[in-house]
Amino acid sequence: MGAKKxxxxxxxxxxxxxxxxxxxxxxxxxxxxxxxxxxxxDILEDTSFNDALRARVKRLGMKLGILKTDEVRPEWVxxxxxxxxxxxxxxxxxxxxxxxxxxxxxxxxxxxxxDEVDAYLITGSKSSVYDDKPWIATxxxxxxxxxxxxxxxxGICFGHQLVAQALGGNTEKSAKGxxxxxxxxxxxxxxxxxxxxxxxxxxxxxHQDQVVTNAVGARVLAGSEFCENAVCQLGEHILTFQxxxxxxxxxxxxxxxxxxxxxxxxxxxxxxxxxxxxxxxERVARWMLNFLGDQSPARAEAV
Length: 303
Known about the structure:
single chain, globular
């Protein structure tokens, strides 16, 4: 194998290319960005470029398959959209070049081939992963196949719990009751896909079920007193969050109003009050995209 070709890009040219790429309309197909193509290739080869910019270029053209596991109540759809719409809107704020395909797995829709997309995301659901529903069993089989092939996957809430349930763990209705509103989760490790700035992050939650036994081989990266297994990673290909980065505070409030009698007045009032603090939606979205777009081995340092 030949030696890697040494870069001959001058500092001034490098900075000019960085500026050029940062100003690109990334929602355009990469095929029409002829003026940026060579600069992008240079950036991928030259580690002296800005890390965030190199990661962004690396993700160009990534196709994400969103596995839809529930429907938003009809009266809320005009304002908030369906769950895949929430994810697409959030993730494209971070990376407008992201391509998404939606598969309604609750109604049996799956890709013809697993490699039809580059990575997958499982949405939240009002269903429980231990419910005796055929579509849930089918989805668990699909997750096992993704795991076998080491295909990139992110699970959110129900998706977080289903990954654990499918891969040797266990999810149960928690004796702690409902978690609603804004919660703060604390990292016990610094993952390679994180921004390494703050060891805590704020995220909206809505769940009574919790993972009590993790998937075989999974690492717990973050948690809280209420939810110990809030962020988990399996190998370099599966990442799951108990929280909902796709939720906006207004949607969280609607759910709490709808479930007010179920969750109880003390939990309801505490959850509504928590909405005074903004969730770190884009921060978590950036982590998800970093993880999905990174083809190099990920490492986490214990702190």
